[in-house]
Amino acid sequence: MEVAVLDRNGKDTGRKAKLAKEVFGIEPNTHAIYLDVKQHLANKRQGTHKSKERGEITGSTRKIKKQKGTGTARAGSIKNPLFRGGGRVFGPQPRDYSQKVNKKVKRLARKSALSIKAKEKAIVVLEDFQLDQPKTTAFSAVLDALGLAGKKSVYVLGEANKNVYLSSRNLKGTEVVTDSELNTYKITNASSIILSESAIANLESILK
Could you read off the pLDDT of 36-72 as tens digits, one per residue? Predict the structure, then answer.
């Protein structure tokens, strides 16, 4: 599969980038994508939710009224969950939400997600470029030239580029990552994937 390489002005450079069929042209496995995305979202949960049960409430343990003769139900503690300010019954407790997915399944999920994007023609190959200084307008101009301004997109770099990363940080819906940071959730959550030329070979070596 070949894709035209564009420059930062959105013009065709006349070169073609070859995308490996083993990574960008497989039969997608949607269940693998589901498992990987579910694990990613579950692992992001802090699990620090906590409510106090009746044994953890600060208050007197004195019996608040006599056992019989009041005409109402028995009550032995002000910390009773039935009373205002009492403990909570079966409330949330801190827990670990993390899940495990095998490496082969995660690799299959990323290849499946990339194959779906390739089939939808939602992959753009951009020649490597440098920015002299962090400038949001400069990166925004690149997105405008590619027709991706205001759309969710992920720009995949072959190696870390601080100026490009800082230039994109204030743009809503746009994310810049290196090839090793790209995951299934980022791929499926974006409308378009922008691959730098240097990132293609790295991605293929990681996923093959």
Answer: 999 999 999 999 999 999 999 998 889 999 999 999 9
Domain residue spans of the chain:
2-45+98-207, 47-96
- Tokens encoding 87: 């403990």
**Phi, psi of 206, rounded to the nearest 5 degrees:** -75, -40
Cβ partners under 8 Å of residue 31, min gap 6? none
Cα 153 to Cα 56, 87, 88, 196: the distances in Å are 48, 47, 44, 13
SS3 string of the chain?
CEEEEECCCCCEEEEEEECCHHHHCCCCCHHHHHHHHHHHHHHHCCCCCCCCCHHHCCCCCCCCCCCCCCCCCCCCCCCCCCCCCCCCCCCCCCCCCCCCCCHHHHHHHHHHHHHHHHHCCCEEEECCCCCCCCCHHHHHHHHHHHCCCCCCEEEEECCCCHHHHHHHCCCCCEEEEEHHHCCHHHHHHCCEEEEEHHHHHHHHHHHC
Q: What does pTM read for this prediction? A: 0.84
Quote the CA–CA distance of 79 and 59 in Å, as a whole number. 7
Which of the listed CATH numbers 3.30.565.10, 3.50.50.60, 1.20.120.80, 3.40.1370.10 matches domain 2-45+98-207?
3.40.1370.10
